[in-house]
Amino acid sequence: METTRTRADRCPGVFRPWAAEDGLLVRLRLIGGRIPVGALIAVLDLAEEYGDGHVHTTLRANLQLRALPGVEAGLDTSVVRALEATGLVPSPAHDLVRNVLVSPQTGLAGGQADLRPVAAELDRRVRCSDLLAGLPGRFLFVLDDGRGDLIGHKSDLALVALDATTAQVRVGEAWADVVALEDAPARMVALAEDFVRRRGEGPHAAWHVVELAEPLGVPASADPRTPQVRPALAFGPVPGGIHIPVGEAGIDRDWMDRAMRLTGTTVDQEFVITPWKGVLVPHSMCEEKQE
Q: pTM higher than 0.70, yes or no?
């Protein structure tokens, strides 16, 4: 499906903020929603000092900050330095393109495979590719660990685990090859680089793989082991932890204090932001409180 664009992608990032009515808006990309608790506290401190006092979550399990100071061309230098100090901006050149959504419970409970190492290697390879710095900010990788929680999510390049060692690639809406999990990051990066080469230039360039005039990859049938689509993760105790709602208001100091008190979380542990306006606190952090 070829689409005619009239403007370039304007998805916001640290080095390309969006000018909203209340100030500048930026987005922090998290791989699979995973974030050290200490880093989230640092982002909340930053939001209180410079922004609206809230850390907002997105449907791609990323973070968003609003009402930040600066001009449309960029944030104040002090804000950029504070954001970089959180450790959540590992490659300025790839700030806009690290869009990797992963099954939040992967490696914690259920699923066919732990996709956390796959996601980490995919991110590493994306950041090592100069070509992929040219991906549009709307381009999305989705990794479903075989439980079916993300298989229905729209994506540009997706991976669905079939068992502990293999997965099937999906390109846009079309299934493609079955690959070994260890080879999956390289395969997805190769497809993404092919997309960048073929997407065109300027405001008319494609944002998504389905907009290319010719298909990307070799179409195939869905593997018989492909899972069914599952509903969004419920809030409350779930396999692997506790899923706590965030809501439209985002995370503020009261929310953070309550969540840490409820689950017994410390700053050296980890939260998982989910694409359902929630935060998954892994069971290892909250089991003592549940007992």
A: yes
